[in-house]
Amino acid sequence: MLRLLALIRKDILVLLRDKAGLAVLFLMPTALVLVVSLVHDTAIKATQDPTMELLLLNNDSGTLSKAIDHRLCNLGFFQIHTKIDSKTPTPEEAQAALSKGRFKVCIIIPEGISQRFDALVKELLLGLMPLNTYAADPYAAGIYVQGRYAEERKSLKASLAELREKAMVDIRVILDPTVPNAFRETILSALSRSVIITETEILLNCLSNTMGRSINSNRQWTPETNSLSGISKDEEGQTGYSKHDGIFVKIREDFSLNQENRMLPTSTQQNVPAWTMFAMFFIVVPLAGQIITERQNGILKRLLVTPVSYFAILLSKVIVYLTVCLFQFFLMLLVGFKVLPLFGSPQLEIGANYLALLAVALAAGLAAAGFGVVVGTVMRNHQQASTFGAVIIIIAAAMGGVMVPVYVMPELMQKISVISPLAWGLNAFLDVFLRNGNLISVLPNFARLMAFFGIAISISLFYRLWRRN
């Protein structure tokens, strides 16, 4: 134990001598978080045309649900899936898939929605005017509705509000908490437009069939100009309806978490853990450089003459640089809590499971230290180590969602990203930040990071043994 403590003291002194390199380890991630968070916040707000995977569960076979289904498929915003592992899921299974991050959005169209919508339409049309008006002269009834539009608007609004209050039908939208607000708004707006256009077409067809003639074929009926949609817009904010609701179809937004645990993501929550992972793995440069310097200067040989093992020498370096990684982690949290809000970015919110957060930070730090050890052991000189280490980390960061969120990448890149250790750490942090993850939920990514550390140390030991023989 005393030998290990002596080695740790030696490594700390070596680390402290390189003040410029030590400053880079802390100032570089701080600057990256500040700059990228501010830029990313603006970029997220400006995003208008995302493409992401959407799970669509259409449990109804009526006219309304088929038309909404068809319009969503033709929008081009989403990659639509109807099954999970070749099986049609239940709503509970769909929500579980979102909680695990397999999909970002799920839309559930309930069974019987078309039948209930048809019944509401018929009730509304029967209440628009006396029945004897239809019987006497259907064409005059059509003129009556259009000619006295302004006068009848108030009573029509009252009838519509009464029906909506009594029997609105719901389409449920479940969102992953990591979906930014701009993407969320795009999803809800796309669904809302599909619903309103479909409702309007069905209403006009029913009204036309009831009167026996087409109503004013020269008038342009669109979701923005038809009277029924106009009523919906007028009532927004006054009767509890969202701007995304249709005439009789209410779009109910939910998250893949319980109500009390759900949290909308911010640019800060994306960038603080992302660039923390980048900073942790960037210790490969000084750590590998220290190992190579000791080997070239003969320090390693003198250490091995003393009664210490090569494993103890590596362990001391892992402990020192793990401590550096933890300092980086807490520094980034401090930046997210105190500094970024001063520049107008949202304050960092990290959830409530601090033990899981610390476990992920430890595993990420160990994985980063293990990578630095294996690079320093295998590379022959400083130029190889610094070039190889930096390039690999930048590639892994790009693949792992540090520079661009994984869900906006092409499908091929999304599949490749799962091999990046930085993606494992980032996903585990986001599980805690946004999905209220605990030790159980972060266990898969925690295990991957620890396995990466174990493999890296094993390669270093076996390579050293092979070189010596």
Report on this model:
It contains 19 helices and 5 strands. By secondary structure, it is of the alpha/beta class. It has 2 domains: 2-43 and 266-468, no CATH class; 49-255, no CATH class. Strands 2-1-3-4-5 form a 5-stranded mixed sheet, with helices on both faces. Helix 3 (63-75) links the parallel strand 1 (52-58) and strand 2 (78-81). It is elongated. The chain starts with a helix and ends with a helix. 40% of the residues are buried.
Report a brief summary of the structure.
The protein is an alpha/beta fold. It has helices at about 1-15, 20-45, 65-75, 90-100, 115-125, 130-135, 140-145, 150-165, 180-210, 225-235, 265-280, 285-295, 300-305, 310-340, 355-380, 380-400, 410-415, 420-435, 445-469; strands spanning about 50-60, 80, 105-110, 170-175, 250-255. It starts with a helix and ends with a helix.
Major beta-sheet overview? 5 strands, mixed
What number of domains? 2
Elements, N to C (H/E): HHEHEHEHHHHEHHEHHHHHHHHH
- List how many beta strands DSSP finds: 5
Question: What's the helix count?
Answer: 19
The poorly predicted ranges are 45-50, 129-153, 213-241, 258-262
- Percent of residues in helices: 55-70%
Mean pLDDT over the residues:
75
Proportion in β-strands: 5-15%
Shape: elongated
Spatial strand arrangement across the major sheet: 2-1-3-4-5
Would you tell me the structural class of the helices and strands?
alpha/beta
N-to-C span: 28 Å
As a whole number of angstroms, the C-alpha radius of gyration is 30 Å
